[in-house]
Amino acid sequence: MGIKFSLVAVVGLILAAYIGVTAAGLSHFFGVSMPYLAMILFLGGFVYRVLKWGRAPVPFRIPTTGGQEKSLPWIKHAKFDNPSTKGQTFVRMALEVLLFRSLFRNTKFEIEKGHKLFYQWEKWLWLASLTFHYCFLVILLRHLRFFTEPVPFFVHGLEGLDGFLQVGLPGIYITDGLFILAVTYLIIRRLIIPQVRYISLPQDYFPLFLILGIGLTGILTRYVYKVDLIKVKTLTMGLISFHPVIPAGIGPIFFIHFALVCTLFAYFPFSKLMHAGGIFLSPTRNLPNDSRIKRHVNPWNYPVKVHSYAEYEDHFREKMVEAGLPVDKELEEAPSASAKP
Amino acid sequence: MAKVPKPSELELQHELPKTEWMDTPSVFKPGNFSYPGKAKNLKVLGLANPREWSPNDQDWKLPADWKNIVLEGLRERIDKYRTLKVFMDICVRCGACADKCHFYLGSGDPKNMPVLRAELLRSVYRKEFTLAGKIMGSMVGARDLTEDVIKEWFMYFFQCTECRRCSLFCPYGIDTAEFTIIGRELLNLIGCNIDWVVGPAANCYQTGNHLGIQPHAFKDMLEFFVDEIEAVNGIRIEPSFNRKGAEFLFVTPSGDVFADPGTYTLMGYLMLFHEIGLDYTWSTYASEGGNFGFFTSHEMMKRLNSKMYAEAKRLGVKSIIGGECGHMWRVINQYMDTVNGPADFLEVPKSPITGTTFHNAASTKMIHIVEFTADLIKNGKLKLDASRNDHLKVTYHDSCNTARGMGFFDEPRYVLNSVCNNFYEMPANTIREQTFCCGSGSGLNNDEFMEMRMRGGLPRANAVRHVNEKFGVNTLSCICAIDRAVLPTLMNYWVPDVSVYGLHELVGNAMVMEGETERTTDLRGEPLPGMEDNENEDI
Q: Residue A311 is inside which H or E element, if any?
């Protein structure tokens, strides 16, 4: 159900943009209103979500320790899997954010007759996720050429690197292909691994289809329909300089691509895609394991009802005295308080 | 107690139900749930809604406004714990955690996949606290809070041992233990808890330890072990109790006082402290290292843990040494100083024997006995004859809490390698930070839950069986009192020729003590290698 719903939603968006631009005269909406609205939602929503998370206190330091703690000086400390300082924690976070350290640990279980369990090598999810995210990043950076004048040198450099195969005209970007491959893998694994399919919600399929749609329409604009990039840049520069214009003659495929991108931005803060921000606030990763070394204060720590030693001794005094255990108050000092347990 | 199927009869299948998880009811069957908390124990602790009830009943006798209580409780906790707040929103359901849970591996029940365990709570959060959930309902994985949901929470938050293995593999560090801990807190607000947790917690609160051992009995029991040690090596040890002015307070789980094989570990502690002449005292008031309050709520954890610092202060000791225990050390490492500190009346722990200062405990002022012993051995302060453990082929189980809540790996291994000659590691993805739970932690070590315990313990047992078959390992060592209580049963079930030993039992065996008579047996009374003939003559 989730799959169909998500697929229908993405196809619906595509049709809406197509019809809107070609038949309903909504170029201004899709070219100007929607991107502004999307950016407002994206920036506002992102900041709102992060602030909302950040407002919640971190009462306890509960890092998940992934290696040897800092201990006696002759015991080798796993600094980056079990950091004890802020600097080491920074490295742990960098490994997590840039290389998906935790996902790299992934294994897959197998079971054999006689209740025998095995854990197999499983790095495909890690590889596909890493490929997906980095390709997305490169593609985003490449798109800076639509929003800058002059185009910064690194964008040209990136285009050169990415297109070094020099196949076809316009030249094929490696990241385009890898991106589509990685997203397709992520969709397929969600569909065919029974456990993953079982836990999947519509909001897991929707962004994947949306992103696949963005990738495919992007490729179409460049390689198939060969949209007039000068006109597109006039539009994007207009948006960024707050003097929006809609040049005539940009093909509908561009508007479809653009509408999907805007949808992604608008949807981002209200979805699981916020893991991009959340990872930085995850208390099992972003804190050093130093809670025996340094005291941490829980801002809402409150006094609780405890059973004091005095109450305990009152309860057991006779037995304690009889057993020769030292007491704070002798029997004669507190005869009435000594209750039989 | 429910009958547990034989290992060969235990069905193990991971096929998914035909129905979506939200439409699959939780069925309480003998062996898959723990008995509910008894009213008397709830009353001792001042917990909500004490009553007699059973999960099998249709009517759980919840308070009239239970729904409101739970939702308000959830709202409050979302604002108090960033973990909960962030983890509610950022899961992408990639499934990396799914097969990392020992209960999922051993039961095949998809709601034991950590991601679904969290979704049990998330689905209610979406419905009540997000706009999309309110409007779109089940389309976005949201659902109403009903009594059936409460029943499901009870089932699955008490089928999680808070071991945090899933959290290690999660790309965002989402920690299912936080869902379980807070889920149990919410259940406690309406009086749904298990007696194996609230019973020990009530005992600990009132009497000082989980087992309800009263002060005079506690002393008696320790003196019994003193006699046992004397029978082994002729040395008479005189422990002190509640003694003011001692240099150290020693706190260990009461399980070590109560039952084999923990008692042998305790004998090891007694022998070690005697041998090095440590100025220390036991306490009958703070006679519990473990903390079943932690399996009830953060507040109950704080209430029970408070005794350690309170007693250290009353007795005027300089610092505290803690015994071998898992969740006890998660609490000490990650919570104690925050909830009950600052321990400014104590000093940074320093070994009086080696002069080593334990800077890694500069604030809590409490050290783990294993790091203390490792330091003694490193400095050559113990005379050890590892061959006395030659009849044992040893492997080592990292307990979840010291593994993923501390990172305590090489200290025990150093001690182990010093006190025995035959040490074999289990496969890499089953030890250290990737260690598998014993299957019975977080208060689930009761008899009625036995089938699930054997299932949940399968991944651990499976790895032990591997080294048993490969190297002939016959000894599973550990530094956790719950492990010592439950692993013998687990081994008996899956790998019958493996026995369970605490690390300090092995230390006690190997330690050559000043003035001891020739030993013919280990602490269990089993003949030492080369002494088998003497044993026969005695018979």
A: helix A309-322
Half-sphere exposure of A24 (CA within 13 A, CB side): 11
B105 contacts in chain A (CB < 8 Å): 109, 111, 117
Considering only CB atoms, which chain A residues are within 8 Å of B164?
Answer: 64
Do residues A151 and A8 both lie within one domain? yes
Within the 419-458 window of chain B, which residues sit less than 8 Å (CB to CB) from chain A?
Answer: 427, 429-430, 432-434, 458
Q: Would you call A71 and B14 a contact, using CB atoms and an 8 Å cutoff?
A: no
Residues B93/A204, Cβ–Cβ less than 8 Å: yes
Q: Do residue B499 and residue B392 come from a single domain?
A: yes
Whether omega before A194 lies within 30 degrees of 0, making that bond cis, reads no
Are residues A315 and A213 part of one domain?
Answer: no
* Full domain range(s) for residue B366: 208-539
Domain count, chain B: 2
3-state percent helix, strand, coil for chain A, nearest multiple of 5: 60, 5, 35
**Size (chain A), residues:** 341
Q: Which domain holds residue A324?
A: 308-341
Residues B379 and B234 in one domain: yes
Place of tokens 């070219």: A31
Q: Of the candidates B335, B222, B156, which has an alpha carbon nearest to the alpha carbon of residue A58?
A: B335
Q: What does the alpha-carbon distance between residue A213 and residue A184 come to, in Å, rounded to a whole number? A: 11
Which pLDDT value is given to residue B141?
93
Distance between CA atoms of B170 and A101, rounded to whole angstroms? Answer: 10
Search chain B and give the residue with CA nearest A272: B90
What is the DSSP track for B473-485? Answer: --EEEES-HHHHH
B96 touches chain A (CB under 8 A): yes
The yes-or-no verdict on residue B433 having pLDDT over 60 is yes
C-beta separation of B177 from B162 below 8 A: yes
Rounded CA separation B400/A80 (Å): 19
Is residue A293 domain-resident?
A: no
Burial class (CB within 10 angstroms; exposed 0-12, middle 13-18, buried 19+) of B224: exposed
Token pair 């691994």 is found at A193
ipTM value for the complex: 0.94
User: Is A4 an interface residue toward B (CB < 8 Å)?
Assistant: no
Residues A318 and A193 in one domain: no
Write out chain A residues lying below 8 Å of B432, CB-based.
67
In chain B, which residues have their Cβ closer than 8 Å to the Cβ of A324? Answer: 219
Which structure tokens are listed for B162?
A: 């808070």
The structural domain count of chain A equals 2
Residue B464 sits in the same domain as residue B491? yes
CB nearest B80 (choices: A57, A278, A289): A57
Mutation site for A-interface testing, chosen from B8, B11, B77, B82 by largest number of A Cβ within 10 Å: B82
Of A72, A293, A297, the CB nearest to B362: A293
CB contact under 8 A, A100 and B362: no
If chain A, 341 residues long, is cut into consecutive pieces of 10 residues, what is the mean pLDDT of each piece?
90 96 92 97 96 96 97 97 98 97 95 91 96 97 95 92 80 92 97 95 96 96 91 96 93 96 97 95 97 97 97 96 96 63 44
